[in-house]
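Student:
Attend to each token:
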Amino acid sequence: MNKQLIECVPNISEGRDLEKINQITAVVETVEGVKLLDVDPGNATNRTVITFVGEPQKVIDAAFLLIQKAQELIDMSKHSGEHPRFGATDVCPLVPIAGISMEETATFAHKLGKRVGEELGIPVYFYENAAKEDKRKNLANCRSGEYEGLATKLTNKDWKPDFGPSEFNKSVAKSGATAISARDFLVAYNVNLNSTSTRRANAIAFDIRENGRVKLVNGKKVLDKDGNAERIPGVLKAVKGIGWYIEEYGVAQISYNLTNINITSMHEAFDETVKSATKRGLRVTGSELIGLIPLQAMLDAGEFFLKRQERSLGISDEEKIKIAVKSLGLDDLKPFKPKERIIEYLLEGKSKKLIDFTVAGFAEETASESMAPGGGSIAAYIGVLGVSLGTMVANLSAHKAGWDAKWEYYSDWAVKGQAYKNKLLWLVDEDTNAFNKIIDAFRMPKATDNDKKLKAEALEKATQYATEIPFQVMETAYNSMEVMEEMAAKGLQNSLSDAGVGMLGAKTAVIGAYFNVKINAKDLKDRKFADDILGRAKAIYDKTLVREAKLTEMIFKKLM
């Protein structure tokens, strides 16, 4: 069963006093197994967005401690800021990340809310997927009136908290209320304008956000048959937005909540904002990401702008992220550091992989007295270099002057090359990991008959895996040859030699990995498994020699 992971993104009503912020966030890391990913304070909003992740029960334990500490240190009766708010811990959403459904996440939200209400005496409102009635699904409804209207709200039987006191006592006057939810991944995203006008920023927000604006005729609201104001919807779904002025930066912004980035992405919100601003005589100068974002959202943005430029998509993730940052102006107000803002990068940890070494460092590690990396990892890396050359030719061809009509064709081949490259990069480290599994099996105890049995089973299983990994290197390197073949035939002919060297890299990877398949398979007790994988490996080896010979002959003819 996959490990269950949820993310928690509490927003506390303190963005200026770093000592208080540090005390509040420090309690998160006292819960073993919970990783604090990001702390993003805002001076103008006087609000800090905190992000941490872990297994569900541990996360809600950490969230409780955070809410408790915020209650202790923040006095809402003295709070002011640009952002809507009604509590010291204003909102505390839980977001399913892996191995857990939204329904299960909502159950944990309810457990957290019950504990906060009963043990801390804080009024709790459940919203979005944790809401227990429809009118409470929308956070804006739960938070309407903000802190200043909370005393009145608590006396309204329709707005009785889900947990906690229904009176504005001395404790509640200090802590305010907390809204807790289970929700989809939300991106808090601000777009910057060359203006100081909140009114103009709001006009753009009304153009874009799903809820749009109230319909007016001759300056009066148009009402429907039930007496409710009719609305003109905005152009984008799953988007909430308001305009505001940020004194800290001296600019007006449209502040968006992208509530489902699978429906409306960050780059779509940016693009539509540019269109609306331009029509209104304004200019978008950049944007600002609050908190964290998934890697795929940044890659999608990079690809969106690359297509606009008719540029190849077959480039590295790092380059796509650079394109996204510059195109969205994410570094307009302050530096944008992908390693600190992209969730997957933060979760990678600090363990050093072989592929993280410098070129010289990798060579030194290989030449050392350590047994790993060995031939399997090196074969995979030679395959990486081979297909990287083929991908380079595809990218050069996509960017060649006069070949503009064919850029997508070459881009598609570069994307294929990148996919092969990424798989082989993973196999560089996985071959060493597979070898280490064998070493671990050898180190198992053998004092009793049962120990010997378990050790033999573990050794067989590890050796099978250590045979499968170089076989995957063979398969991947062999399949990658299609990139070099296509580029030698139809790519930039000044780079013909590069395609040829790329093919030789792929061939070397296949043969080198074949050596490893054979040496590991000979020790297997399961001869049916061994004979099957050896047969398939031999077939790839034979086809590789034929394929490389044909391409070599073609290249020599073209070079004559």
Q: What stands out?
A: The radius of gyration is 29 Å. The longest strand covers residues 89-98. The chain has three domains: 5-182, 187-347, 354-559.
